[in-house]
Amino acid sequence: MSSDTNIENPIIALKSSSVPFSTSELKNCPLCRKPLRNINRYGRIVRRAWIDEATKKFIVWANAQLVPLASRMEQAEAKLREPVAERQTLKSSLLGHAELSPALDRLSLEPVRLTGSRDQQIRVVLKAQKANARYEDISLLRIDIRKFLREVDEAEQPISRIHALVQDARNHRGVNTEITDIPSVLQVRNRLLATVLLFRCDYAILFNFVTNSGGTASEGSAQDCRLNLALNRKDCENLIQDSRSRQQPAQEVEGLLYYVRFVALERGRSDSRSDADMTTLVDRAHDQLDLARTICNAQPSQTTGLLAEVSEAEKMLRDATFYAPVTNAEKAAVYAAMAQSFQGTGHWYYCANGHPFTVGECGMPMETARCPQCGATVGGTHHQPAAGVTRAADMEAGFGRQ
């Protein structure tokens, strides 16, 4: 019998409370006792697994943040669309004071100029509407969208931070080799979706302000607005090029649509363009519409609901009749699918193009649908996955450890 169990030497405590239950002990090689991350044979595998798990967590987090923002955007747009019971202007509130009439007439003739960047334009609008409660919700929402956009930027993602740390370590060691092969694991879709959502927010604010504050100079209404939306269109072009290079047709079409909407909003209110220049710009907008329609017809599953918006934008450009973009039933269904795609107690799967989704309840597919990212068939029938759908066992294992 061991001396540890001898009656003369009773057990009073464990020799070491950290052995063998220490997590650091589990990270060592069982043969040489060196940390696995410091052994070339295992370190790359361990680090790769860590990066994969961090990326999956980022995807789930970003999706969970984006869907509520989209829902708030719908509510804010609905609030802006509510009819104004009485437009109480400064001039109407002081009509009884005859001595102020000349000054008020000059005030009403002063145009509101919306120029520069979108941030500058929104600041002018919100300052002019500081006492208007209609803009309160959407102004707060815009702050949250901009914050989310910064958080999902590629530079903030796990793999980019690791890349920056490795490059910094090489520089400190005097190694001048530049790391150029950043893995394709970088997630860009949420950044593009957030960019589109910010466009939607800005356009809603500008559209509501312009259409409710006066109109064109020839109408002689309450107050004139003069617009120069050149930088807005430039931002749209950047979104179009970025989405095209990332093979995201839905976001490319959204960029084309907002380009057209900004042209239609500026027409008749331009701060500096001649009639000839505006005609050229409108022709360019028609070309953008033709391209958007071509993309929607070529990839209908990935541009669900956007073809109807192309037709509305065309009417706006042709008839000078303004339509506030409304999230249609098909796009609302896509947002609803996104809200459920990373939730539930079911099993994880990949579509044919590698986009993850979940099946709730028992975790076995009983119906088919379309992947909201690429349009490929997801789900299945009779507990059998559809063609191209594979079980994401690695993802389930990763989340099982969270």
Describe the structure.
The chain is globular. The model is unreliable at 1-5, 16-26, 86-98, 104-108, 215-222 and 398-402 (pLDDT under 50). The strands form three sheets. It has a three-stranded antiparallel sheet with strand order 4-3-8, covered by helices on one side. A three-stranded antiparallel sheet has the order 5-6-7, with no helix packed on it. Helices cover 54% and strands 6% of the residues. Helix 6 packs antiparallel against helix 8 (189-213), helix 10 (249-266) packs parallel to helix 12 (306-319) and helix 11 (275-298) packs antiparallel against helix 12. By secondary structure, the chain is mostly helical. The chain has helices at residues 23-26, 40-81, 90-93, 101-109, 118-128, 136-151, 158-172, 189-213, 230-245, 249-266, 275-298, 306-319, 329-341, 393-400; strands at residues 112-114, 225-227, 347-350, 356-359, 368-370, 377-381, 384-385, 390-391.
Topology record:
Elements: H1 23-26, H2 40-81, H3 90-93, H4 101-109, E1 112-114, H5 118-128, H6 136-151, H7 158-172, H8 189-213, E2 225-227, H9 230-245, H10 249-266, H11 275-298, H12 306-319, H13 329-341, E3 347-350, E4 356-359, E5 368-370, E6 377-381, E7 384-385, E8 390-391, H14 393-400
Helix pairs in contact: 2-6, 2-8, 2-13, 5-8, 6-8, 8-9, 8-10, 9-10, 10-11, 10-12, 11-12
